[in-house]
């Protein structure tokens, strides 16, 4: 099966899942192809109307050399020399490579700029980028991504576009913008939802094994807190509890054990909501630089405007919060195991799985340290780096540690 994209409305989390996780290909629809070619013609008319106007990367050079003017008679030649190619940025940086599912997701997100008509590219360029999904996929280094925007990972993705393949304005459209952040948000939203469902199920079994009361978890009690995410977490937790529930606080477990769990599951629910929002918005965002704004009554030729679209300010803060939510649930898992053991009367075996929990808590706390903008060191540009990959890695690591902690909870709860 294939996903057909004919406009920005087709860049959804569900389509992302099909392309990135299920391995489906992408076909550029006829409406999108016609729109791109029409927009390309309109951009060329704008450019030809005055080749001395400032259009970043087209009539000027890139980055710290943006003040360098490209003479009109050299602009076509300059464009043929622009592109990811196989230059120094095409080298790896060590530390392994992005998972191929993530690479597929970034390629899918990259197509949104093209299909919008604002990236100044011909439909043939978009179709060629979509064809990369048919393999073999490019290898994208996991480390060394800190640079202006997301240029470094994107040049690795688009290395098959040799210099000479592209026309004015198309080279920058391959590596500018923020499709990496969009893809990482979507991937985290999908994997995070499954992880939270598993955490809810395992910790519900633990509550049942502890004899914790059911009533404090129920939505009417939690609704008074005033937050929809807490109510949703409570409803999912109650649905995961055994049908008979428990009548009281057996074994010395106090009602707060149940409500505290709802609070932390609600924290994860809020964090996932923010990641999902970032994904839904970012997958449909037009983030090229410069972006071509289509003609209107005031600008009959359209406009080419330099933007800060390379910096996605939604994704990495949302991923920071997600990492913290996973780390907090690792601590909650540790507390559940301690409670289960305290009231079970069972002595741990020599190979007690719970012995791993202090280390898991420590590593989870380290993974949850917030990713912030990196400092610029000897950077001749005045922009800032985009840290989405770093935040994604930390959130992923915290999630893996939670998976391990939940495994311990399940095993110890099963001893009851």
Describe it.
The protein has 416 residues and is mostly helical. The chain folds into 2 domains: 2-177, Fumarase/aspartase (N-terminal domain) (Fumarase C, Chain B, domain 1, Orthogonal Bundle); 185-278 and 312-413, Up-down Bundle (Fumarase C, Chain A, domain 2), CATH 1.20.200. It is built from 14 helices and 4 strands. Strands 1-2 form a two-stranded parallel sheet. Helix 8 (179-210) runs parallel beside helix 12 and helix 12 packs antiparallel against helix 13 (357-367). The longest helix is centred in the middle third of the chain and has 32 residues, at 179-210.
Key traits:
single chain, 416 residues, mainly alpha, Fumarase C, Chain B, domain 1, Fumarase C, Chain A, domain 2, 2 domains, two-stranded antiparallel sheet
Could you write a compact summary of the structure shown?
The protein is mostly helical and 416 residues long. It has 2 domains: 2-177, Fumarase C, Chain B, domain 1, CATH 1.10.275; 185-278 and 312-413, Fumarase C, Chain A, domain 2. 53% of the residues lie in helices and 3% in strands.
């Amino acid at each position: 099966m294939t996903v057909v994209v004919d406009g920005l409305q087709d860049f959804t989390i569900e389509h992302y899942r099909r392309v990135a996780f299920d391995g489906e290909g992408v076909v550029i629809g006829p409406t999108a192809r016609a729109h791109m070619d029409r927009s390309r013609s309109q951009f060329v008319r704008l450019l030809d109307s005055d080749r001395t106007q400032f259009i970043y990367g087209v009539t000027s050079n890139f980055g710290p050399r943006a003040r360098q003017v490209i003479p009109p008679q050299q602009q076509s030649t300059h464009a043929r020399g622009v592109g990811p190619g196989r230059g120094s940025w095409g080298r790896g940086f060590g530390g392994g490579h992005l998972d191929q599912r993530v690479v597929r997701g970034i390629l899918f997100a990259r197509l949104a700029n093209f299909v919008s008509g604002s990236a100044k590219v011909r439909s043939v360029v978009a179709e060629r980028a979509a064809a990369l999904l048919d393999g073999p996929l490019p290898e994208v280094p996991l480390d060394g991504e800190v640079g202006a925007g997301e240029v470094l990972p994107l040049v690795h993705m688009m290395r098959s576009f040799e210099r000479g393949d592209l026309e004015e304005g198309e080279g920058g459209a391959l590596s500018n913008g923020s499709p990496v952040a969009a893809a990482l948000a979507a991937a985290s939203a999908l994997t995070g939802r499954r992880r939270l469902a598993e955490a809810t199920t395992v910790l519900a079994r633990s509550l049942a094994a502890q004899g914790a009361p059911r009533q404090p978890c129920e939505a009417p009690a939690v609704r008074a807190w005033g937050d929809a995410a807490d109510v949703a977490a409570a409803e999912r937790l109650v649905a995961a509890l055994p049908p008979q529930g428990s009548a009281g606080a057996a074994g010395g477990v106090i009602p707060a054990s149940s409500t505290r769990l709802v609070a932390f599951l609600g924290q994860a629910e809020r964090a996932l909501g923010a990641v999902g929002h970032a994904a839904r918005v970012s997958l449909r965002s037009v983030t090229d630089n410069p972006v071509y704004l289509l003609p209107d009554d005031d600008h009959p030729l359209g406009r080419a405007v330099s933007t800060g679209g390379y910096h996605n300010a939604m994704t990495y803060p949302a991923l920071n919060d997600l990492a913290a939510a996973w780390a907090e649930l690792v601590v909650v898992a540790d507390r559940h195991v301690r409670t289960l053991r305290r009231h079970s009367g069972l002595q741990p075996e020599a190979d007690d799985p719970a012995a791993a929990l202090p280390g898991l808590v420590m590593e989870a706390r380290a993974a949850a340290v917030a990713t912030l903008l990196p400092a610029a060191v000897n950077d001749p540009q005045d922009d800032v780096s985009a840290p989405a990959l770093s935040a994604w890695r930390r959130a992923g690591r915290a999630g893996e540690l939670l998976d391990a902690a939940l495994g311990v909870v399940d095993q110890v709860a099963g001893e009851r």
